[in-house]
Design brief:
By secondary structure, this protein is of the alpha/beta class. It has helices spanning about 30-45, 55-65, 75-95, 95-100, 120-130, 160-180, 190-205, 220-225, 230-240, 260-265, 275-280, 290-310, 315-340, 350-360, 375-385, 400-415, 430-460, 465-470, 490-500, 505-510, 525-530; strands at about 25, 50, 100-110, 135-140, 145-150, 155, 255-260, 285, 390-395, 420-425. The N and C termini lie far apart (about 60 Å).
């Protein structure tokens, strides 16, 4: 009887610089927008790079066949996605080409989340289809400069990582524009068309980054990305295109904030039952979760560790100041990009604020998955009237998210009016999940309509007056016009309040315009009633950034 061979951890074969020109780096896990911009960053550094196809139900079935049954659905979906792609390449190009002409690039981690076990799941699945020699590179999600990988073909240096981080930030910003606009577009489908054009503008910007002369110096490379106007100028071109989309924001739509496990909340496709698209079709406006908040969250852990040592290590205080400076620079960079887009994308919440809100229910040192942020985000949206409901997407058998869902029971006990829909995602129970979400969404719709009607009455507005104002002040119909938050959860209520507050500007606009009204309403009547409207201003709490 032959002895059972010992388990050997996966170790990729070397990927050499000579192989770079013939090897396609595969990557995925984000939205198609983020992935297209990341592809531009790779192409800028002369890598062949290609995002994996978007997740489908077939990937779930493949993943279930090849890895352990206790895996969470993000592990199963992403494993099946990689395997199905390589199986297709194996059939089309042969086994040798599938192994030698492709490599997989992704992030890794450790801790209670199964994110740290993806490596084992992938290697098990690839071994099952006879592709164990396929090369995979798992990189730390907390380091910007990790040096050459085995063989030197993949250089994880400042030009690559800053390109990826900036691509993620800009992908977040354009996703915010997309979800703020599409529910209110006058011409169906126009938002998606313009969005694709804008993504291509930014892809070209990343592909053509002028960093050849400085990419050998990591600090010059980082400094250029921070202070250069290169990306902000490209974003101004984006907002100019966005201006061409016509919207009607005088509508009562429930605001639904998406939270949950990182992959599930970010994904747009079968992996989370296309829930964002489904919510829009149900009449909601979705607040998508930015990856930027996750990156900000990751930077807090070394800060916590350093703070605990500042009284015993003399050099710690200097490191704390440097790290705080980096976090401020990160927020400054994000807000600078927001400013190029008329500050329409949402501002990042303070990590300190999220931790303080969650503290009575969830300790910030329990850092598996999204940690305390899930509780903090739900409370932040509720207490600051940023959303009518929160939808938390939890993978089946995910320990960190199960903890947060349990903690939310205590939160709901203190705040019973908080609308919270925890949705467990298994990948094959769509009807159950969406029906559960629909029950909470029904109440959110009632609240949105009640809020809108109350604001219309308070501001002395009618549909006829809104139509007349829109004809004479067309800038309010442009998708690039920012509707400020005036203390209401719904965009429609904030929009009506804004019109009443902008009476001076409206008066000036109307005096210069000689437009015949579509209905027999005298201009003097509208102006008098709008000018006499009592305005309502709700002061938002001031947030302090780390």
């Amino acid at each position: 009887m032959e002895p059972t061979p010992h388990y050997k951890a996966y170790k990729p074969k070397p990927f050499t610089k000579e192989q770079r020109k013939d090897t396609t780096l595969l990557f995925g896990g984000l939205t198609w927008k983020h992935e297209r911009l990341i592809q531009g960053a790779f192409h800028n550094l002369n890598y062949k790079a290609e995002p994996l196809p978007n997740i489908t139900r077939a990937d779930l079935d493949t993943g279930k066949e090849l890895i352990d049954v206790g895996a969470c659905c993000p592990t199963i979906f992403t494993t099946g996605n990689l395997v199905n792609y390589l199986k297709k390449k194996k059939e089309e190009e042969g086994k040798e080409a599938a192994v030698n002409d492709y490599a997989y690039f992704t992030m890794g981690a450790c801790g209670p989340c199964r994110f740290g076990q993806y490596r084992e799941s992938y290697s098990m699945a690839l071994d099952g289809i006879g592709l164990r020699d396929f090369r995979m590179f798992f990189l730390s999600q907390t380091e910007l400069n990790q040096g050459d990988q085995e063989g030197g073909g993949l250089e994880v240096n400042m030009p690559l990582t800053t390109g990826i981080v900036w691509a993620i930030l800009i992908g977040d910003l354009l996703t915010d524009l997309e979800f703020q606009t599409r529910p209110y577009e006058v011409v169906p489908g126009q938002t998606n068309i313009v969005l694709k054009e804008c993504i291509e503008i930014m892809y070209q910007a990343f592909k053509n980054r002028p960093i050849d002369k400085i990419k050998g110096n990591k600090w010059l490379t980082l400094g250029w990305h921070v202070v250069s106007n290169y990306f902000t100028d490209a974003l101004k071109e984006v907002i100019a295109k966005w201006k061409t989309i016509e919207v009607n924001k005088a509508q009562a739509k429930p605001m639904v904030k998406i939270t949950g496990e990182f992959w599930l909340q970010t994904h747009e496709g079968d992996g989370n039952y296309n829930i964002k698209d489904w919510l829009e079709k149900e009449g909601a406006e979705v607040i998508p979760p930015p990856v930027a908040v996750w990156l900000d969250y990751l930077m807090q852990f070394p800060l916590h560790a350093l703070n605990e040592r500042k009284n015993v290590d003399k050099g710690t205080k200097k490191k704390i100041l440097m790290l705080k400076g980096m976090i401020k620079m990160y927020h400054w960079t994000y807000n600078r990009m927001r400013k190029s887009l008329n500050e329409m994308p949402y501002e990042m919440p303070s990590q300190k604020t999220l931790a303080e809100l969650a503290a009575p229910y969830f300790n910030f040192r329990l850092d598996g998955g999204e940690g305390h942020m899930l509780i903090g985000k739900a409370l932040y949206a509720y207490l600051n009237n940023k959303a009518h409901m929160t939808c938390e997407l939890t993978p089946y058998s995910c320990m960190p998210n199960t903890m947060s869902v349990g903690a939310m029971a205590n939160v709901r006990g203190k705040y019973p009016e908080l609308l919270y829909a925890p949705i467990e995602i298994k990948g094959d129970a769509e009807i159950h999940a969406l029906s559960r979400c629909q029950m909470i969404l029904t109440e959110a719709k009632k609240r949105a309509l009640k809020e809108y009607d109350e604001v219309m009455k308070k501001c002395n507005m009618t549909p006829e007056k809104l139509e007349w104002i829109a004809l004479n002040a067309p800038e309010y119909k442009e998708a690039s016009f920012k509707v400020p938050h005036n203390g209401y959860a719904g965009t429609g209520a904030n929009y009506i309040t804004m019109l009443s507050q902008y009476k001076g500007k409206l008066t000036k606009t109307l005096k210069k315009t000689a437009t015949v009204t579509p209905k027999p309403i005298a201009a003097e009547t509208v102006l008098t009633e709008v000018a006499a409207t009592e305005t309502v201003t709700v002061q938002e709490p001031e947030l302090t950034y780390a």
